[in-house]
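If your schedule permits, I should be very grateful for your opinion on a structural question. I have a record of one protein: its chain in single-letter code and its fold written as discrete structure tokens. Kindly check, if you would, that the fold set down in the tokens agrees with what the sequence suggests. I remain grateful for any guidance, and I place the record below:

***
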Amino acid sequence: TDGVQALHKVSMQHYDLLITDVNMPNMDGFELTRKLREQNSSLPIWGLTANAQANEREKGLNCGMNLCLFKPLTLDVLKTHLSQLHQVAHIAPQYRHLDIEALKNNTANDLQLMQEILMTFQHETHKDLPAAFHALEAGDNRTFHQCIHRIHGAANILNLQKLINISHQLEITPVSDDSKPEILKL
């Protein structure tokens, strides 16, 4: 398959992953990737090249590839990257408001880093949210605001706009017995 054929196939059918040779006739893997990204495709794209130089990998990442791997591609390397991709895909649906393109940009398309950020966010938020409610009930305003501030910061990193707005509102709302019902509604 050449790059033009690959572009046509990808536009006609859903794929979970595209592994493309960098050096193809008619349209190389870099141009294919650029065209797919112009279409706003969030399809994971891995480039494969025999040119094992750092600038080749950098060129692949700069055009929008998630990974640029060197030939020969061993089964172990393929399994490792597929496992990471599966883990990110498994976590991401929990964050339906997640701006995946912003996350990719913030992590330079590093799947392992994306996975670590999402897992850390999930773990820390599952600690901070109950702690914030407990602090609110106990009248511990300082702890409440610290927990909400951490959640707000994490939401900013992931560009979770709805959570950013809610946590910001919670940060600026003075906590009192009168405001507790309003806070709990948020």
Strands lie at 18-21, 45-49, 67-70. Residues 113-185 form one domain. The chain is about 65% helix and 5% strand.
